[in-house]
Structures are given as C-alpha cells and as structure tokens.
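Not sure how to ask, but would you mind making up any protein sequence you like and the tokens describing how it folds?
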Amino acid sequence: MEDTIEVFKEYYTYDIISGMTRNYIEQIPEKAFREALANAIVHREWDLPSSVQVAMYKDRIEITSPGGLPAVLSQYEYLNTMISNLRNPKIADVFLKIDLIEKLDTGVTRIKEAYKHFQRKPLFQVNENSITVTLPLITQASHQREYLVMKELENKDLCSRKE
C-alpha cells in the first residue's frame, strides 16, 4: 500500500512555488485514493485468484477489488449508507490499528466527501465478481496553466510583465 501511495504522489501531486509560498496541488484527492485503496484490500474476496488492480491514467485512477458485494449487502446500502459486511475483520482490524483506515464502514462516504467541492465525482461500478472505484482528476485548468507558466519561467532569467 505504501509503495502504491508513493507512485500516486509522484504522478498525481505537484508543488507550485510562488515567491515564498509553496502550494501542494493534488490532481486527485489523496484522501480518496488512500480510502479506495485500503477498502479494496480490506474488503476484497481473498478466495479469488486475482489481485487488487490500480490502473493509473492521465485523467483518472481506477482501483478494482476482486469479489462483488457480499450477498447480504445491496448496492444501495454499499453506496448510500455506512452499513458494511466485513469480509476480512482481522485485516480491517490491523489496518485500523496502524492508521491505514480511520473508521470502519465509512469508506465510500469518505471518498464521496473528498470530492464534494468538485464538479467531477468518483464512480463506483459494482459487478458480480469485482468492484471498481474510478477517481477522476479534479485539478482545475487554472492550476494546470499556473504550473505550465511557472515551468516556463524557470528557464528564463528576466522577462517583462507583458511577457
């Protein structure tokens, strides 16, 4: 999990330095990424000969967990309530104790909360044998333009205000 988060930070976060101020920019909310990854590991079906998959694209990240919803949990309950049927309570307990998750049964809610101020929202695709969470980029175009301008200015000694 830690290695995956390091790759995430390398490709989906950056700093913009303006004068004496450094701004940390997340292209995808790190909180949502951590939560989706931890949920995929904790709630996966370990009997399936498959792995948690993290696919990183230019405009999104898709995290796929082996195993669909437990039979006692509806898609509505999964997406809209804090009801959970813990498949792997021992793994969940370990993740809770080492602070990889904050509280049980709140993962989907936390992912949605991380996106509440953004136009693009996460998608949850529930299949019979897998669950995929898609986390879209949230970076506003203004941040991207600012980043490109700063990169361009780094290569110049002096320039006028108009330039």
